[in-house]
Amino acid sequence: MNPNNQPPNQNLLDAVCRRGVLVATSVRYWRGCKRLNPEDLGLDPAHVSDRLIQLGHKRLIPRDALQAFALIESRVQATVESSSFPFLGGIGRFVPNPRLADLTEKLDKLRDEFREATLDFVAGYSPLRENAMAEWREAARHMNGDAGQLIATIEQSFPPAGEIAKRFAFETRLFQIAAPDSIRLEVVEGMEQIAVADDRRRIAEDASRRLQADLDGFIRESVASMREETARLATEVLATIDGSENGVHQRTLNRLTTFIDSFRSLNFAGDQQLEATLERFRRDLLTRSAEDYRNDSGAMASLTDGLTRLRENAVQLARSDAREVIARFGQMGARKLAAVG
Predict the structure, then answer these.
(1) Per-domain boundaries in the chain
(2) Which pTM does this prediction carry?
(3) pLDDT value of residue 341
């Protein structure tokens, strides 16, 4: 097969398939909340003004009882976001192959933490519910309206102890990106079945075209986000140095080194311009220690000048067209087609 006969965006799709996968994570736990309506308080909705009384979601149990799950959920989100790019409007997160093993290992550890937290919560659920109901009964004594109706509503909002564990789940799914194939019927009988097969084929082909057309934007956004992140980091480091009485700290230099290492593993699109700039910055300015910089004013001036140039270069790249990056990236898919042709 001649790769030149393939649509350019087909090459992009093949290249994306080779360079990473989609990941979708879900952290689900009982939120311990109940949406209260006027009826729950024994009030007539027609005589309750939204301007004066706001009911909405109220906590059934104290916030700290579920704090461990909220923390795990936020850590999962941060872990995935630091290793991936949003794919086509957020239907998933694209994880470059070099980051996949590290990401799955971290998610496995978080899943273990989630499992332990779930076991602890389930074990203490019954006394927690009893204590919470005691607090609600006390609170209801000082509220207007039907306290009995409110307490009954709250009691019914707690899941039974035997079912509470079902409200907790931690799931991670990996997907290979692919355009939908034409859908064929195993057995075709009559013109109606043929028409159905044609409709399905047209739908699949249209979905494939739309997916391929969106890939160009996805790669552009991914490249731009890394360039913008580089400029932002350089700006923050310059501000840190400027605001420090002792010059630069080693942790600041380590932050730069870590970012460059991270960039290399996230650079699935092959942004050679920024990668070369970062590697040159590492070679020229990150081989000294912070103490060396603090003791050498000339070296310190070189570091700040280098950071300024890095920021300006990254800003210029972020504002430029990533056409060359996309063209090179598409050639990866073309090489695959040529190899199997």
Answers:
(1) 20-175, 190-340
(2) 0.77
(3) 38
